[in-house]
Specification:
Length: 51
């Protein structure tokens, strides 16, 4: 399908910097999968759906 680009809303942050500090402290949680590994698994999963 065709990719359609739309303008961002005025209040859209130009740079995102998520912070998991609250989850770490309130839930005693930390990620178990490295970002690169998780992204790779996600890409493989979605590629499998379209093949």
């Amino acid at each position: 399908s065709k990719i359609e680009f739309k303008p961002l809303p005025e209040d859209d942050p130009q740079q995102r910097q998520p912070d998991i500090g609250l989850a770490r402290s309130a839930l005693d949680w930390s990620p178990r999968v490295a970002l690169e590994d998780g992204l790779g698994e996600t890409v493989r999963y979605f590629r499998g759906l379209i093949n």
